[in-house]
Amino acid sequence: MNDKKELVEWAHQLKDIWNTQGAFIEGQVGQEKTSPFIRSLTQLLDTLEEDYRIEGEYQDKLEHSALEVFKAWNQMIGETRSELGNSPVPIGGHSLPPLPYPYNALEPYISEEIMRLHHDKHHQSYVDGLNKAEKKMQEARRSGDYDLIKHWEREAAFHGAGHYLHSIFWEVMSPEGGGEPDGELLDQIQTDFGSFDKMKEHFSAAANAVEGGGWAILVWSPRSRRLEILQAEKHQNLSQQDQIPLLVLDVWEHAYYLQYKNERKPYIKNWWNTVHWPEVKRRYETARGVQWHPS
Ligand SMILES: [Fe+2]
């Protein structure tokens, strides 16, 4: 039972994270926020210990337990983030955020194999590259030797954009994804694009037309007070730093090639089934608070 193996691995990863960072997280958000997570994780680990062969009922119970953990984890981590809002990441101290769901959770739309490689290898290398660049630039500031600054600035931009965009990417997808957003985000989409379907069509066309590797990005422009869709080819030098990404889609080949070969269109089409709108909405509502002079 492949799904069960995946869940066991995911549950143990969360348990390991809890063992090393639990005290810190609890210090930030308090016991009332952490106890639903611990309760649901214990319940899931117990359920995983049971060895029922009756597919239907046991499978339902397992899925229910996993979903409870998924919700409790996201709520707790969301709280931790807002508590940590003003704490800076130390120089060279970036870390790979854990996936908020098991590696196979986005199947059939995105395969387990891709998620493993994409998260554990590609994203990790952006984190490592950014940390290295930041430390090298710190060294340069200490020694006053800026001979290689162009190189390290490029590395910092390339790996930094990669780290930040991937961090958003994992969170704007969910096994519970798909459908349409609601509330003010939907109203804004309708105002700026005509309809949700028009936005989706425009975003898909933009993603499909990215030359080589890159991203499609739905942004809120604090200056024009509108949503816009952008492409980021070579994310290190074409990102619009004035914008706040809300929804991002990775169309680098490593994100789909193993499963879709060179067929980017069906990957883009299927990806919509994974979009986690509540997270996009959360980002939108926060971003709306940022305002510059219109020009
Ligand atoms: Fe990627």
Automatic annotation (TrEMBL):
<keyword id="KW-0560">Oxidoreductase</keyword>
<protein>
    <recommendedName>
        <fullName>superoxide dismutase</fullName>
        <ecNumber>1.15.1.1</ecNumber>
    </recommendedName>
</protein>
<keyword id="KW-0479">Metal-binding</keyword>
<feature type="domain" description="Manganese/iron superoxide dismutase N-terminal">
    <location>
        <begin position="94"/>
        <end position="174"/>
    </location>
</feature>
<dbReference type="Pfam" id="PF02777">
    <property type="entry name" value="Sod_Fe_C"/>
</dbReference>
<dbReference type="Pfam" id="PF00081">
    <property type="entry name" value="Sod_Fe_N"/>
</dbReference>
<dbReference type="InterPro" id="IPR001189">
    <property type="entry name" value="Mn/Fe_SOD"/>
</dbReference>
<dbReference type="GO" id="GO:0004784">
    <property type="term" value="F:superoxide dismutase activity"/>
</dbReference>
<comment type="similarity">
    <text>Belongs to the iron/manganese superoxide dismutase family.</text>
</comment>
<dbReference type="InterPro" id="IPR019832">
    <property type="entry name" value="Mn/Fe_SOD_C"/>
</dbReference>
<feature type="domain" description="Manganese/iron superoxide dismutase C-terminal">
    <location>
        <begin position="181"/>
        <end position="283"/>
    </location>
</feature>
<dbReference type="InterPro" id="IPR019833">
    <property type="entry name" value="Mn/Fe_SOD_BS"/>
</dbReference>
<dbReference type="InterPro" id="IPR050265">
    <property type="entry name" value="Fe/Mn_Superoxide_Dismutase"/>
</dbReference>
<dbReference type="InterPro" id="IPR036314">
    <property type="entry name" value="SOD_C_sf"/>
</dbReference>
<dbReference type="InterPro" id="IPR036324">
    <property type="entry name" value="Mn/Fe_SOD_N_sf"/>
</dbReference>
<dbReference type="InterPro" id="IPR019831">
    <property type="entry name" value="Mn/Fe_SOD_N"/>
</dbReference>
